[in-house]
Design goal:
The protein is α/β, with parallel strands linked by helices. It contains eight helices and 19 strands. It is elongated, with a radius of gyration of 24 Å.
Length: 375
């Protein structure tokens, strides 16, 4: 791998075409790091490489001295693309892979329909498979069967578009696999348009290992196929220091110390039902560092409470900081308030939100309340 791989890779999302996100790549890297620590390392496979945006991440997951099998119809076989789920270009794919890997001796490109692949010819020493090829029910079912057979115990499968209503065949094929094949795969995590599965049997609970290794990353709990899974809605990117991380070892950023003081122009508001109003609020940065800024990064918001302090609506409109708020400095912004549709007394609890990272209240930062009366 080339030096500075992760930052270089992040920058490439601006130029390489593909329906893949850097957060999905970080999800793959994080869980693969945990399985690697369990001694599970081997070949990797991707069905549907397109122009290589996700293939760059998958290739980085291969164990040392192992191979990356890249499968795609590419240009010449698009007449076999039943579900119309992308059209790869072999030349562009190779160009992009060469940009990120100094040597491509580990890469095996297979130009065929994945249904033509035979498990006994591929072997059973794969530690990670990414399924992003045909999106019909039959294609998904067959791809899951193939990958479950070539995967070593404890290895991971990432399935694309499981919950995408544009491709209902994916979930249909996955459920058919679950009903017919049973316990060979257990779901682990949902996030960034992917579902991660792990081949059984295994001894280690990988989600407990995730919580131990990457505790600051918020994970909601859900159930899929009768199994507890992590469900991720927050971006992974703010939590990792890319300058210190490698494809084999992700390094968390130190959790920032945050402290802000709120000074609203008024401590009481009287508005009409459903009315939209702006309240000027001065925010004082009492932290030791500048607050982040930019589009949808950090902003002023509020939690809607009853007059007794009971939470009614946690998430509300944001007023994002477009300029930096330096340490020991202040900034005045308009808090956007949407009055409830029911008359009566309420409280507005002002708070700062760092998207994908935290609400300042969750880190112990004092909030400020404004009395709201709706007529």
């Amino acid at each position: 791998m080339k030096a500075g791989f992760l930052q270089f890779y992040l920058d490439a999302f601006q130029s390489i075409q593909g329906f893949f996100t850097f957060d999905a790549a970080l999800l793959f890297l994080a869980y693969n790091q945990l399985t690697r620590q369990e001694g599970i390392t081997g070949d990797v496979l991707e069905i549907g490489v397109h122009h290589g945006l996700s293939a760059i991440a998958i290739g980085s997951l291969a164990g040392r001295g192992r191979r990356f099998v890249a499968v795609d119809l590419f240009d010449k076989l698009q007449n076999q693309n039943q579900s119309g789920s992308g059209g790869g270009n072999r030349q562009i794919f190779f160009q992009n892979m060469q940009t990120f890997f100094e040597c491509l001796d580990f890469l095996e490109v297979v130009t065929t329909c994945s249904s033509e692949l035979k498990a006994n010819e591929l072997g059973n020493q794969f530690s990670f498979c990414h399924i992003d090829g045909g999106h019909s029910a039959e294609e998904t079912y067959q791809d899951l069967r193939l990958c479950s057979r070539i995967l070593m115990p404890g290895g991971l499968i990432a399935l694309d578009d499981y919950f995408n209503p544009s491709f209902p065949g994916v979930s249909e094929g996955a459920v058919r696999f679950q009903l017919e094949v049973g316990e060979s795969l257990h779901p682990l995590a949902i996030g960034f348009n992917k579902v991660l599965f792990q081949k059984q049997p295994v001894e280690t609970d990988l989600n407990l290992a995730f919580a131990s290794a990457f505790g600051p990353i918020p994970a909601e709990r859900s159930i899929l196929w009768g199994t507890n899974v992590n469900y991720f809605t927050s971006s992974f990117l703010p939590f990792f220091d890319l300058s210190k991380s490698t494809e084999e070892s992700l390094v968390l950023r130190p959790q920032p110390e945050v402290l802000a003081v709120f000074e609203p122009q008024s401590s009481k508001l009287e508005v009409l039902r459903g009315q939209l109003v702006n309240l000027p609020v001065t925010v004082h940065n009492k932290s030791g560092n500048a607050f982040p800024h930019g589009k949808a990064t950090l902003g002023l918001s509020y939690h809607l409470l009853s007059s007794s302090g009971r939470m009614l609506k946690f998430d509300n409109a944001r007023s994002y900081f477009e300029v930096p708020l330096q340490a020991e400095s202040s900034l005045t912004t308009e808090l956007k308030i949407h009055a409830p549709d029911e008359s009566g007394p309420y409280l507005l609890e002002m708070d700062l939100v760092w998207e994908g990272m935290m609400w300042f209240k969750e880190k112990g930062n004092p909030t400020c309340t404004v009395a709201l009366f709706v007529k």
